[in-house]
Amino acid sequence: MILPIYGYGEPVLRKVGEEIAEDYPNLKETIANMYETMYHAYGVGLAAPQVGLAIRLFLVDTSPFAESDDISKEEAEELKAFKQTFINAKIVKEEGDLWGFNEGCLSIPDVREDVFRHDTITIEYFDEDFNKKTEVYSGIIARVIQHEYDHIEGILFTDHLSMLKKKLIGKKLMNIMEGKSRPDYKMKFVNKKGR
């Protein structure tokens, strides 16, 4: 089932997600709905707060990045194959150079800005079958994971921007909050008139 994506300004996007247990109600269904919602919106990642759930759950599928001409054949193969569900994730190490990449977010449609993040991360998490894992990721995969991880910490990519950049996009953010943004996927807006 396709779920509405919560837009910028919705309070749930600022909550730190709570850890969940293996018996969390309808977990498999929630994960399936989140994947369906993400694919419908042409996203590469989606976190539970973006669908109104303040829990530590997010998913990533980097296959759309495999089509880019700017990456090596090896990286394209890695991106094409990477699809993972992260439950109760904890980034335990960030290392390597900070590098910029133009990021967007399904909760903040029509806004894209360069964000600088570490190249390599070590993350502990449970997969959707509640197998505990510790993995090291780098490059674009690490970047997408860091973006989604921020969501379960109540952080948005716009929080990484300078005050000047935030000021420049202020009108766009206000339009999202007021429901004036028109992405081609279902959204829930905090201040939409007549709601």
Secondary-structure blueprint:
Layout: E1 5-6, H1 27-40, E2 45-47, E3 57-61, H2 73-81, E4 83-105, E5 108-126, E6 132-138, H3 139-152, H4 163-168, H5 170-177, E7 187-188
Parallel strand pairs: 1-7
Antiparallel strand pairs: 2-3, 3-4, 4-5, 5-6
Q: State the name of the first-level CATH class.
A: Alpha Beta
Total strand segments: 7
How many domain units?
1
The percentage helix is 25-40%
CATH-defined architecture? Alpha-Beta Complex
Enzyme class: hydrolase
Binding site for Fe cation: 105, 147, 151
EC number: 3.5.1.88
Keywords: Hydrolase, Iron, Metal-binding, Protein biosynthesis
Descriptive overview:
With 195 residues, the chain is an alpha+beta fold. It has a single domain (5-188), classed as Peptide Deformylase. 26% of the residues lie in helices and 31% in strands. It has 5 helices and 7 strands. It has helices at residues 27-40, 73-81, 139-152, 163-168, 170-177; strands at 5-6, 45-47, 57-61, 83-105, 108-126, 132-138, 187-188. The chain has a 5-stranded antiparallel β-sheet with strand order 2-3-4-5-6, sandwiched between helices. Strands 1-7 form a two-stranded parallel sheet. 33% of the residues are buried. The model has no long low-confidence stretch (mean pLDDT 95).
Could you list some keywords that capture this structure?
single chain; 195 residues; alpha+beta; Peptide Deformylase; two-stranded parallel ribbon; globular; iron; peptide deformylase activity; Peptide_deformylase
